[in-house]
Design goal:
This protein is of the alpha+beta class. It has five helices and five strands; from the N terminus they run E-E-H-H-H-E-E-H-H-E. The protein has one domain. The protein has a three-stranded antiparallel sheet with strand order 4-3-5. Strands 1-2 form a two-stranded antiparallel ribbon.
Length: 137
């Protein structure tokens, strides 16, 4: 359809497999980065525990929300999928939305994906909670 002279582009929504593969890639990346961080920290004689705690929190709890806000995680980039605002897929979600989305994704785990086949936009529970949607690029 055409609104004025601007064509309306209907977004494509990724399949469950794309989303699971993206999550798997991100999990493997985080684990790899934990090994890298541990290797680097082992080179120092004394590293305070709070440094290790901050690195752990940053890798597990900031990586996905921050990358999602900035454009996409490594898994998103590889699978060519992005998180966008549900009401305007041309806009990225903000950091607060990303934190809400990630909180529900972690809280519910794989259960969050149960709603993907029940709506036309293939939105998971964490997408519904955050007002987000995944699209193919």
């Amino acid at each position: 359809m055409n609104q004025g002279n601007v064509p309306v582009i209907t977004p494509k929504y990724p399949l469950l497999g794309d989303r699971v593969q993206s999550t798997f890639i991100d999990s493997m990346f985080i684990i790899f980065m934990m090994f890298v961080a541990a290797s680097v920290l082992d080179r120092f004689e004394y590293v305070p525990d709070y440094v290790r705690i901050i690195l752990f929190i940053a890798l597990w709890f900031i990586y996905e929300p921050l990358c999602t806000t900035l454009g996409g995680t490594l898994g998103n980039q590889i699978k060519q999928i992005r998180v966008r605002q549900a009401d305007d897929t041309s806009k990225k979600i903000n950091f607060i939305q990303s934190l809400i989305r990630y909180f529900f994704k972690i809280l519910l785990g794989w259960i969050s994906f149960l709603t993907i086949h029940s709506n036309s936009e293939r939105r998971a529970i964490h997408d519904l909670a955050a007002g987000s949607v995944m699209i193919k690029v």
